[in-house]
Specification:
Elements (H helix, E strand, L loop, with lengths): L9 H5 L3 H19 L6 H8 L3 H5 L5 H23 L8 H18 L1 H11 L4 H24 L8 H21 L6 H13 L5
Helix pairs in contact: 2-3, 2-5, 2-7, 5-6, 6-9, 6-10, 8-9, 9-10
């Protein structure tokens, strides 16, 4: 079988410890999703990209769905860890400043792990229900955090907290996409300037 990764012989690949091999294969799954699309992930494509035989992949994963579930679980856990560190919390400064600081942290997190977030953005558009359901859980948690911060800031009477929370979520999500897809046109500083003006119209600064 051809396709051994440059710089790695087949024998050296076989000698990789099991835990390290599993992580390598998950790295490959992420790379395939980002460069070729989730529909291109298969036992064959991962084996070829990793420079190993199919039995090596089957030794760690039962099938394509198992590969994708494991990849999603790993990247989801890492993304949640990033998000936990930057989500706004009631009582930490004014609502507007808390949201802007959170957005700045989110954009930094996206830039810190671009392939992870490219894959997440890609999986949102996937037709696979299980992926959409998992990602929807994360979205619900973010919306709840935004709602808590808005309510804690004593918003103006008549403020639709739920709609505002969803508008903030959409701003975060699209900003993350933009800094990856068009970094020269939409650098974080430009997005944050706009966001600061927009958010302060609705939240106390």
């Amino acid at each position: 079988m051809t396709g051994t990764a440059p710089g790695r012989t087949r024998s050296s690949a076989v000698r990789m410890p099991p835990g390290e091999r599993r992580e390598q294969l998950l790295d490959v799954v992420l790379r395939v999703i980002v460069t070729q699309g989730v529909h291109k992930v298969s036992m064959d494509s991962v084996a070829k990209e990793a420079g190993v035989t199919r039995p090596v992949v089957y030794a760690h994963f039962t099938d394509r769905d198992d590969l994708l579930r494991a990849s999603l679980a790993r990247e989801e856990a890492a993304a949640l860890k990033q998000m936990a560190a930057i989500m706004p919390e009631p009582g930490r400064g004014t609502p507007a400043r808390a949201v802007i600081a959170s957005l700045a942290g989110f954009l930094a997190a996206v830039q810190e792990a671009p392939d992870r977030w490219r894959a997440i953005f890609t999986l949102v558009d996937s037709s696979t229900p299980v992926f959409r359901a998992r990602l929807e859980q994360g979205r619900a948690a973010v919306l709840a955090a935004f709602e808590d911060v808005i309510r804690a800031g004593n918003p103006e009477p008549g403020t639709d907290v739920e709609v505002l929370a969803r508008a903030l979520h959409a701003l975060f999500w699209d900003a993350g996409r933009l800094v990856l897809a068009e970094p020269e046109t939409f650098p974080p500083d430009r997005i944050l300037r706009f966001a600061r003006d927009a958010v302060e119209r609705h939240l106390r600064s």
